[in-house]
Structure formats: C-alpha cells, structure tokens
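Record format v2
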Amino acid sequence: MSAIPMERPVLEDDEAAALTGLAARVRELAEATVLTGADAAEAAAVADEVAALTARLTAERRGAPPFVTPGERRMDRQIANPVTGPLNPFAPPIGLEVTSDGVVRGEFTLGAVYEGPPSYVHGGVSAMVLDQALGMAAAATGTPGMTATLETRYRRPTPLGVPLQVEAKASRVEGRKVYASGTISAPDGRVTVEATAMFIMPQRFVTSEY
Amino acid sequence: MSAIPMERPVLEDDEAAALTGLAARVRELAEATVLTGADAAEAAAVADEVAALTARLTAERRGAPPFVTPGERRMDRQIANPVTGPLNPFAPPIGLEVTSDGVVRGEFTLGAVYEGPPSYVHGGVSAMVLDQALGMAAAATGTPGMTATLETRYRRPTPLGVPLQVEAKASRVEGRKVYASGTISAPDGRVTVEATAMFIMPQRFVTSEY
C-alpha cells in the first residue's frame, strides 16, 4: 500500500559520512531560505542552482532511505529519521542517548523552520520530538513498537533558538504494549511540554530483528 | 526568552512568489539527499555547492521568517509555517482550506523525509499535521489559540507516497478555550490517525489582530 519499499540499502561508513555532511548543508540551506532577505531575482537564480544540484543527486536514486551497517538496534540504523536522523535535512537532528537505566535524553535547539506561534516552537513539532523520544524509551525495554496513543500537554510556550532538553522513560510493559512518558524543558529547567504514550509491538516484529 | 523576535518583515507579492519557488526547490533537494545513490565524492562536491548557495542567501538575512501582506487571517500570513507554509522547505506543504461551516480539509502526500517505521509516516509527523489542522479549525471559530492538549490515536499505519486526507472541525468554545477533533485518512478512506485537542487563546491575543 505504501509507495516506499520496506527493504533498505545499507551504507558504507564513508558514504554515510559524506551524506551526513550533505544533509547538514541542506539543513542550513533550508533555514537560510526561510530567513533570507534576497530579492526576487536572486532567489530565483539560487533556485535554479538548487534544481541543478537536485538533478545531480537524483542521477543515482534509491527507492528508499538507506540504513547504516547492521549490528546496532534498528532504530539507530534509521539515519534518515525525521527527528534524530543526521542524513535527513528535515531533522534538527536530535541526538537521543539511552542510559543504562532506560532513560532517553537529548539536548537540542530548534530554528526558524520549526516555528508555530511567532517566536515559539510549533506545537506539532514538540509532539513529533516527544513521540520519537518516548518511542525510543519504549524500545529500550526490549519491546519496541509503533505509536498507538500519544497525549501531549502544553504547559507554556517552547522558545526557538535556545537549548532545550527532552527526556523520556518507559513506565511499564504489558505483553506487546509499552507505556512511556516524557518532557521537553526550557533552559531555565521549567517543563514546557509533557507527554504520555502507549506503543504496541506489531505481531510481525515479534520474531524480527526490530 | 526566545531568540527570534515577534516582529515580522512583510513580503511583497513578487518576493513571496520567488521565495516560494526557492523553497520548493530546496524541498526537492532535501528528498534527493535522503534518496540519492551518489558516491561519497559526489555527495561531498554537491555539499560544497549547497554551502555556497547558503552563503548567497545569508548575505541578506532577516531576524525572523517573513509574513505575507496583511489583510488576511494571521494564520494565512505565516507562509513559513512548518506544516502549511509554502516558504518553508521543511513543510510538505499542506494546503488546508476552511469551508464556510468551519471544516478544515486538505489532501497531501508525504515522501521519504517523513518516514518513521519503514515505508510508513512517522507518528510524530502525523501528530504535527493534526495539530495544525485542529488549530486552524479552532481559529475558524473566531477564537484562535495555542495548543493546550493534543491527544492522538493511531488506528493503523499511515502510508508514505500516496494521497492522504486530513479533516478537522471545532466541537465547542468555552470562553478562551476551543475543543476540536480531526482525522488523517488513507486513499481507501479508512482513518489511520485521529486526534482531539484543546486550544487556549492567550490573554495577550484577545485584543490583538491574531
């Protein structure tokens, strides 16, 4: 039903490094696009150059985003993930670490492309970050799954352009269901957004390497 | 507290058109980056070219994303919004229309940069789309606000690369609070994700033009 296949190309380390560098430059270009004061003629000229670079990249095109080499958890292999993936220009990207006691933590800063209310993070972007962090906390229990429910409560606006903290932890596992909760905090330590979620491991994952 | 000011530059029509075209090209470049099969040397060479284009755009840089000319609802003016904004390469972008009876509707297709589980839309991306649609439905009541709570339920996976429908409507207004609900549906008409949310109009917006 989906137009993108499940099978994944796997990158060699040097390819992954080069593509990660490329994604970082495209991420900067996206922010520059939102903030540029270039006039119409210059914007159009740059657009033509961008189209030419896209043509170079699509000369060899994969059917699906690549993974990095196996041997790690599957979530870590998805380097094009829209929240954590260094290969994805759309991702901030947020480096989420899992501690030995299963706590997921990351520090991140969101720029102009993630703006909702003027000068604040879009509420949906905060939900996206929390979905990823809570999902990783769920996976850290050994029962990874897909999001079944996500409840997000916004306690105060989340500022753009300053270091934010995200933290998440699973609270319990019931069969194929895992419950997790987490927060986003501002530099002053105050929680701006909190979330709870339930993840369900699909039957087809139970015997796979997910 | 936020690093991005509230004040907005306002674009002339020709500037908005040129920047919208540029954003569309950068959006294509981002997808090409995730799917390219270019080798490490070619990826690095393209990255250098991208950096040069970023330098051209940042020669004149604004402090905040621009709005389009006044006279419309404020939400429509935010053309760099991460869900609906044609000026934002990070946005799909989704054209959300508000009918005369307050229903928000849009059709959209999400590509590889929005992938969560292999071949499916990231759960957090679906939440982001729903937050925006429900927020616009809330605003259509005449009481726009910031997201206070968002509850998202995932009924089945949402496929990438096929036309999806999003629909939202406000259910009731209580003072400065507005309740809304909505869904994302697959091409077969089945609901993949449903959401309810509550939005609160900040006191400072009550007398403003928001």
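The mean pLDDT of chain B is 92.
Chain B touches chain A through 97 residues (CB under 8 Å).
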